[in-house]
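Re: the multi-chain job from yesterday

Posting the exact lines I submitted so nobody has to dig through the queue logs.
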Amino acid sequence: MSARRVTLLDVARQAGVSVTTASRVVNDGPHVRADVRERVRAAVAELGYRPNPVARSLRRGRDATIGVVVDSLADIFFATIADTVERLAVPRGLAVTIGSSGRDPVREQGLVELFLQRQVAGLILVPVSDSPGYLPLLGRGTPAVFVDRPVDGAFDAVIGDDRGGARRGTRHLLSHGHRRIAFLGDSTLIHTTRARLDGYREALAGDGVPVADDLVVTGCPQPPEAAAAVDRLLAAEAPPTAIFSSNMRCTVGAVSALHSRSRTEVAVVGFGDFPLADVLDPAVTVLDQDPAGVATHAAQRLFDLLDGASAEDPATSVVPVHLVPRGSGELPCAPS
Amino acid sequence: MSARRVTLLDVARQAGVSVTTASRVVNDGPHVRADVRERVRAAVAELGYRPNPVARSLRRGRDATIGVVVDSLADIFFATIADTVERLAVPRGLAVTIGSSGRDPVREQGLVELFLQRQVAGLILVPVSDSPGYLPLLGRGTPAVFVDRPVDGAFDAVIGDDRGGARRGTRHLLSHGHRRIAFLGDSTLIHTTRARLDGYREALAGDGVPVADDLVVTGCPQPPEAAAAVDRLLAAEAPPTAIFSSNMRCTVGAVSALHSRSRTEVAVVGFGDFPLADVLDPAVTVLDQDPAGVATHAAQRLFDLLDGASAEDPATSVVPVHLVPRGSGELPCAPS
DNA sequence: CTGAAAGCGCTTACAG
DNA sequence: CTGAAAGCGCTTACAG
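And the result, structure tokens for all chains:
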């Protein structure tokens, strides 16, 4: 009963041709007489033949799969990136293999090596650091496009306007009278944290506001750490009147802390939009970095490379970031 | 420069043995003299040999990959399932290929067929309907475990206690004095919607409360539709005083609608926890179905099957669901 | 314990 | 336009 898999040889026999010819028809190759082509097509249909992707990959030395590595699929930001890539890849006949690095360079390296072993056609990567150890493996082989964070060297990347966005968001708070604006972020090993911190500093400098070191908190990977940091900031001698949160996880933590302390008069602008941001009270003002748009860009670039586009001049595309005022970022500086 | 891939033959030559022996060592096979084993190991290390998974898959007729199909990775519930499976699979040497069905049976079917073509070792599936067309393809071949929704027939599945949870949640609202409790859900083609609707009805019946058809709204796939439905319910002649929302997307939509209409006195219990549910005001009472736990269960069952566990008696495991009271579900029935 | 050889299912020069 | 044959890199009966 366990119907043996239908092979190209079966098709060839049924059509009365060689496997070579059958292969040519299946792959829409040239040099096949119309009537022969028809016979083979009929055999394919009749037998329900589907090429074995594994055999094909072995022979071609390339698998019709694209490998995706993100920090974590449980984070809606990265999940959206993966979702977007998958939705664009499948209709093109590309499978999507996914890995989560957990923001661990070792895991990231292992995943990329695994994907390379498997001879994926291309890679979409969110690198943990600026110079991942696998970079040398990428030269001249498997096209790769980095997303959200660039790497050192000549590689394709699609990222958001981190510095510009952070500058914009911080200025927005300044324009509402705030002078003591805290910066909340993840590890500075991560490119986006540094770029956004730069933007924050530029904005303050532009208004002649000194950067108070005690207001800059980095190293918060998840909401709980960010919430704890906000608790500390609020309890300090000279607490901030506003918070610029440099990523979604920090924003969620910050907002939680403010709500649980009933300190929602503290202004907040967060980098990265998130579900329910508009339902909270006050609704949260964010810089929307459009992860789906970024991922679409990156996938498109990868597809172009797979289709033979020159990889000669890799470039970093910067996608603009939009300020979405919703309330929390427009709170005035409370008189102290 | 493009260092040719190191093959098993290279290892064999280097160690002065046949590829057969080299293969045995690489696969920890028996019948190899200790010193030979050592020589081969040394060669592997020296050359940096890594087996080609594609060749291996072709030969074995089985790929060390597990295929996962979910509704959408952009939905945190399904993303958590995918994330959990991936995190458990990779350390076991299994790659994870993912597909999103978009709740479209045709896409779902295409993905499963693709995965089967690729000879994945196993499947983790969230089926759109109760009897997907690919079910016959699963008999006696590739182990599969269904998640969140069961299918007709003898298959392994891990699901939440939908009916029991819904009964519990509805009773909770009844216990706070509500009698006009709306039911909000996705399409009734989806198993969980039906099971939860059953639980809702049972709870009402248990208290002798008639089910008012005008309070039962299904067919809301996303938050906007749910929000619109809530708008309509509130505007009706006899509006509900409480809402039982049967999934996270509906809950988000419902909560948005209540907030934007300033009708947050309406009680809400939602099936499925979600980020920020505890930060909203009122915080949202939910039935937590623990997607990570469900996925862990399912992955474990799949790994057991891959390790040779008997697939003779497939079973549906039901994971309990916990009520998390946070405020919205404990609002009293407003005097009308 | 070890190896020569076949074969997984396909693609692709190479001839004709 | 068509086909015989080699080969992608591995695993696995089969002999010895």
